[in-house]
Predict the structure.
Amino acid sequence: MSIQSGIKYFWSSFWQLANPKIFMGWSGLWLPWVIACTVICLSTGLIWGFFFTPDDVRQGSTVKIIYLHVPSALMAINGYFLIVVGSLFWLIRRQHVSVLAAKAAAPVGMTMTLIALATGAIWGQPMWGTYWVWDPRLTSFLILFLFYIGYLALWKAIEDEDKAADLTSVLALVGAVFAVLSRYAVLFWNQGLHQGTTVTIADGVNQENISSVFFQPLLLSMVGFGLLFFALLLVGTRTEVRARRLKVLEAFERAH
Amino acid sequence: MIQVFRRDVVLSIRSGGGFGLALIFFLIVVVLVPFALGPDQSLLAKIGPGLLWLGALLACLLSLDRIFGMDYEDGTLDLLATSPLPLEGVYLAKSAAHWLTTGLPIALAAPVLGVLLNLNFYVSGVLCLSLLLGTPTLSLIGSFGATLTLGVKRGGLLLSLLVLPLYIPTLIFGALAVHAAALGHTFEGPLIFISAISLGAIAILPFFSAAALRINLS
Amino acid sequence: MIQVFRRDVVLSIRSGGGFGLALIFFLIVVVLVPFALGPDQSLLAKIGPGLLWLGALLACLLSLDRIFGMDYEDGTLDLLATSPLPLEGVYLAKSAAHWLTTGLPIALAAPVLGVLLNLNFYVSGVLCLSLLLGTPTLSLIGSFGATLTLGVKRGGLLLSLLVLPLYIPTLIFGALAVHAAALGHTFEGPLIFISAISLGAIAILPFFSAAALRINLS
Amino acid sequence: MLEVANLSVGRGGISLLNNVSFSLKAGQGLVLRGPNGIGKTSLLRSVAGLQRPLCGDISLDGSIAYAAHVDGNKGQLTVRENLNFWADVYGSEMMEVALIAFKLHDLGQRPAANLSAGQQRRLSLARMLVTGCKVWVMDEPTVSLDQENTALFRVAVERHLQLGGIALLSSHSELELNTETLDLVQFRASQRIIVSAFDKALE
Amino acid sequence: MLEVANLSVGRGGISLLNNVSFSLKAGQGLVLRGPNGIGKTSLLRSVAGLQRPLCGDISLDGSIAYAAHVDGNKGQLTVRENLNFWADVYGSEMMEVALIAFKLHDLGQRPAANLSAGQQRRLSLARMLVTGCKVWVMDEPTVSLDQENTALFRVAVERHLQLGGIALLSSHSELELNTETLDLVQFRASQRIIVSAFDKALE
Ligand code: HEM
Ligand SMILES: Nc1ncnc2c1ncn2[C@@H]1O[C@H](COP(=O)(O)OP(=O)(O)OP(=O)(O)O)[C@@H](O)[C@H]1O
Ligand SMILES: Nc1ncnc2c1ncn2[C@@H]1O[C@H](COP(=O)(O)OP(=O)(O)OP(=O)(O)O)[C@@H](O)[C@H]1O
Ligand SMILES: [Mg+2]
Ligand SMILES: [Mg+2]
């Protein structure tokens, strides 16, 4: 099999997933496993992190918030990314499943944002002596939160499903452009107190900033949060697909 | 009257508005201010209470022109005016619905947003109280203004213009109460003034508003 | 396109709106702030430039939902959509008319109001320049938001919610330019950013807005 | 009993109709006729109390319900919710009767925004039934209605009159109602400009 | 030339009309008939390009002008300004002709908000003349018009057809035009619910 036909095969089976029926079958099959992995990773990661790591020299036991804070922050950004990609697929290929996935990702992403904000605020009190500072990273998250609310509010405000899908997708795309802009604008505006990025996917561990005692459980709970996000996304999308089917059935009821 | 009130609340929820949105606008104003004024923490803490009051006022302002505007444009107001309901009652019902969907949620959320601006628990409580006592006036005055600008299309700005000067006393006493609390002074005086203004507004504005409605419909 | 622009300007003047009102709203916000924050002169001078930018943004916001709303409700938008004009052109014309009646007068008046807040001549000039370069973006983004919320009755607050996050870069750079000028730093950087955002908005938003209009009309 | 005596109405500083007089007893209806712009709407609005007449008297016993050119339904509310609101306002129990009279029961759960023009119109006619008022004042009630629905309207009005109601209508089309008609052309004002007391004093 | 082939239209997830086909050559008009709610407005909107049809083809040469149920005049602009705007948009010179055709010259300086219902309607009919478009698509054009003005409308449409135009109208009243009529009842969709490919796949 040549590379080209391999790629072709990949894409055709990828688009197959967008067929609602295949999606429902596939996701129904995988969901229990995903949930099981989530539970394992998350519980071991969090229990390891909370109970079997030493207190930090400077931060004391408050450092343990990191096991909730960092993964949820990452998933918050992930959710936004997913919305944009799902919307794009919808606008280009009219794939309902992808836009429903975008819709399902929004509340999950919003909750993650809220968790990141809340854990950050709780952490801020001992660390910086205040719950909130207008730091670029924090502020960006607040804006992200607003965007999630706006996106969901637009979904709710428009009655016609396909119309709502179209309009929210347009909003997501324009929002993405301005999100990048905001990110840079905010950096100009204030240098901030918040920690720089120390965990990067590319080089795994940056030993200078974070010791592996903390890092290994952190990595595990990050994987756990990722799986949790995925599981919630599947559940959400399945619910949306079912809601859609229900609407059709209801319309049939009314018409006959 | 209770019917009009109930219907207005339902309408505002149906149209994607409802309790949430006024709140969110309020949140947005609070978020925007640091961008405009710079992130200096102590500066923000100093102007925080006043800003929250200003935000509440603006959130209120934004939804005013629709209190009567929709009903006027689609002809419902004519029908209401020929119904057995007194126009004073219609005015009160609509003001109350507006307050329930904007003023009340804002007042309740203000302490939470106070955290963003470093207000302490005590000051937040006073802020909440002052908003609870003051926002009814904002809705009443706003609806009154809306009856005046009924016939004017795109009346939003004109309405703000008419209404803002009338908001000033409430704003002053509201901000004063919270400032006083922040400085540890007594704050009962301004709160009593706010309540008095609210009561006065309930007492006199219905008649003027009903008159304005009648004039605008004829 | 030029016809739509001309008509929108005339309409906004006829309906008691027009150049004056955005301005006056702007003025009132500036006047209200001392009531909310207390009359401390040095504090006001410090936050003056940012406040003027914030006021401009809010004045802009207040009139947004009517850019397309009126035409949608009275059926004109259907007629425009079936006319030979491209919807992109309609969007641009309407944004331009909105800017002419809100952004432009505000930008020109800002230096005058700056006097009320003790801004010096130099800072006022930069403020005016930054508003001239930034307010078109506000109108463009606002009209884009208006195309999204067209079908939503009482969509004013939803519109603000959608639009405000998009306003943030412009606000940041605008306020930054004026702050820099006030501190005697160079301010070209932020101004270039503002202009770039404006140009970007003109380049991409018409397509998205026309798409949103088409979706909403069908 | 609706009695209009020497009524004059005008709009925007111009007088339109002079000395219109008629009186309707319980069970009587009247259809106003006249070319576009003669002042039918202005007259009906005066009777409904929405517009001050230039002079003349309107006396009626019983309550009045008005239906304007436009429908005045709330698009976000369903058909039932729309009617229910008016039933609450007028404290009436006629909802179900009205729904059946205008064949709206199938559309009960539909938001009013999703109705066709004729269905909207039926909803606003049903509203008149719901009010339970004795005097109906209706401005071109059959606009957008097809023949079948016009017949429903006719039945509703005739029933209303039989039950002792009063109906004052305006229309350009033949309503085929068993009522009198009044051609307003005979009342057209000759001296068109209204001069208020203030303006008179200026002369 | 307006050709509609196998057109199906629906609204809100429900299909209304199936396989509507007709073709109009220059000089031909067609009046759509059918009871309230059958889908006349939806069909006209599809032809005007305002609504995506479920399936079928619409082909036309020449430009299209659409007049909806509502008038769409700007109340703050005078009659002349309203027409002038559309004349500018369509790049046409027909203003004066339109004003005369619908006897609007006396009302030229009047803000449209101060017109009676019939006068408003005349203004929106005049707008069609002003567009100079070849294909007129009009939804119940004679609503609120008195007999005299209905005659003006008839003359305008007949002139338009004589000059090689095309007119597609819907109406509940007898227009007495020299055109064919098409009763839409025969096209009423039997299988009412639209099931999209997505929904189909769900089953
Ligand atoms: C409400 C406030 C906060 C928000 C919204 C927030 C947001 C974030 C975000 C988005 C990340 C992930 C960034 C990335 O990896 O690129 C992050 C990571 C982190 N945050 Fe926060 N944060 C907040 C408060 C705090 C506080 C108070 C502390 C403690 C001093 C803190 C310490 C950290 C640390 C240590 C990381 C990991 C840095 C890294 O390895 O990337 N954060 N936070
Ligand atoms: N503000 C105004 N200034 C001047 N004339 C006005 C004003 N408002 C309405 N008119 C005129 O008053 C007249 C009466 O209007 P009205 O709506 O009562 O007529 P109508 O008999 O109901 O007509 P239609 O059959 O078209 O509905 C019209 O000629 C109208 O142009
Ligand atoms: N969103 C929606 N959901 C369901 N049904 C709808 C929706 N919108 C419109 N309809 C229905 O579609 C049908 C067709 O409407 P349309 O306006 O095309 O009818 P029409 O033939 O123009 O009727 P009329 O003569 O009353 O104007 C109506 O029965 C209406 O109730
Ligand atoms: Mg009339
Ligand atoms: Mg129709």
User: Anything to note?
Assistant: Residues 173 and 197 of chain A are 26 Å apart (CA to CA). Chain A has one domain: 22-255.
